[in-house]
Amino acid sequence: MIxxxxxxxxxxxxxxxxxxxxxxxxxxxxxVKMNREALYLEVDFKREVDKWPKENILPNxxxxxxxxxxxxxxxxxxxx
Length: 80
Description:
Blueprint: E1 10-16, E2 26-33, E3 38-42, H1 51-56, H2 68-77
Antiparallel strand pairs: 1-2, 2-3
């Protein structure tokens, strides 16, 4: 078994609307700590979504989304 360097590790994953840095917006982000505390947000996005995320990510997202501003506030309230 691998022993982690710290018990305060945070794993995260994000999904973007595009890999193009000028067009891409965050669609979802998730954070999980070693003690299983978690935060998952789906962000309301306004720009065009590339073909791959449209076919593979959007169908798996829920209906309830937060704005970018709400996501930033929620993330600041979590005491990691």
